[in-house]
């Protein structure tokens, strides 16, 4: 037998044979006393020891698998967020610039409406589950939803006036605001490498603005507000997530429920802003609404809007606010290059250098912050 109990049987048999082979009774008595004085572990003791080892090995294995699963979830959600974020910016820029569509709030409203239709349909057919909208849940979620709408609207306005490459560099200011917000709101301290990278981001944003051949003060102002609202959204969303769970019927709040909340609550607020910014008259006279290809493009942007809403919340669930913002720094390199090539942006050597300097600062910030985490 290969088991511990089998080994113990063999050992006992060997000692018994040794006792029987002792010639004199005195020697046999001494041998018996020596044998009886030796302590062999009992079956229960050995089973306990063995099970203890197995439990420790099993615990290590579970802990390793759990860490690997969490790591994979964070990586997968981060990649999905980057892909949807890049695609969303490029498609919005295409609609606002190539089609010369001057109704950014209406575009945002339609995208959110498409998201609501998709999520409602998936929930109706039982493919996904969503929490019912109650007044308690709406009251908890409404403040972060207003920030969400402001973030989308200011992004639309800034993209109309600024090229994609400069938008990506200026978005680095979001990282600075988020890091400062986490320091004051959550008492999170960043090391010197993080602050050095943040300082380089600020320098790159300033130098990029001075060397921008198509500088537009209105667009830069909207982008500054967008950075502030984006940082506020990432800082407040994580806290609101935890609070909202307490007022749901199931005690949980999955990503689809949060997407449904955000996009549904944004519809009445979006309608209000359309009248405030007088986009109704523009829409009634725009020939674009009679083009089938235009509707295909903006409907596709609605699918991307759902994707970025879902992936951003999924990614925030797996990481934190700073990681959420710093990963956005990494996807700016391909996004900037694509924006320059796709939209034929005229740049100078100084402006190109400031853009890539800012992108490098984003990468340094990502590496420094990942080490701190």
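^ structure tokens above, recovered residues below v
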């Amino acid at each position: 037998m290969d088991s511990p109990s089998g080994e113990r049987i063999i050992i006992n048999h060997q000692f018994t044979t040794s006792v029987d082979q002792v010639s004199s009774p005195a020697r046999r008595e001494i041998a018996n006393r020596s044998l009886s004085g030796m302590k062999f572990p009992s079956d229960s003791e050995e089973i306990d020891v063995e099970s203890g080892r197995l439990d420790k090995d099993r615990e290590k294995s579970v802990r390793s698998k759990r860490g690997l699963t969490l790591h994979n979830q964070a990586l997968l959600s981060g990649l999905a967020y980057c892909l949807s974020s890049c695609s969303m910016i490029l498609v919005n820029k295409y609609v606002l610039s190539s089609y010369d569509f001057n109704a950014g709030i209406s575009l945002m409203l339609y995208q959110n409406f498409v998201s609501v239709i998709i999520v409602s349909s998936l929930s109706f057919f039982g493919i996904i589950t969503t929490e019912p909208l109650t007044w308690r849940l709406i009251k908890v979620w409404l403040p972060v939803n207003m920030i969400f709408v402001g973030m989308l609207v200011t992004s639309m306005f800034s993209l109309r006036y600024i090229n994609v490459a400069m938008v990506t560099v200026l978005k680095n200011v979001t990282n600075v605001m988020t890091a400062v917000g986490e320091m004051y709101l959550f008492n999170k301290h960043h090391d010197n490498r993080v602050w050095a990278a943040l300082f380089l981001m600020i320098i790159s944003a300033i130098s990029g603005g001075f060397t921008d051949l198509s500088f537009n003060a209105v667009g830069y102002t909207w982008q500054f507000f967008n950075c502030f609202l984006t940082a506020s959204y990432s800082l407040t969303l994580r806290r609101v997530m935890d609070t909202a769970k307490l007022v749901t019927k199931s005690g949980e709040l999955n990503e689809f429920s949060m997407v449904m909340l955000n996009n549904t609550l944004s519809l009445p607020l979006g309608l209000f802003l359309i009248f405030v910014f007088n986009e109704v008259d523009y829409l009634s006279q725009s020939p674009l609404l009679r083009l089938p290809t235009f509707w295909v493009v903006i409907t596709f942007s609605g699918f991307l809007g759902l994707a970025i809403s879902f992936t951003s919340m999924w990614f925030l669930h797996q990481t934190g606010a700073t990681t959420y913002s710093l990963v956005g720094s990494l996807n700016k390199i391909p996004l900037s290059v694509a924006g320059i090539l796709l939209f034929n942006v005229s740049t100078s050597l100084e402006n190109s250098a400031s853009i890539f300097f800012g992108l490098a600062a984003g990468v340094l910030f990502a590496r420094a912050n990942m080490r701190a985490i």
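Residues 1-40, 64-68 have pLDDT under 50 and may be disordered.
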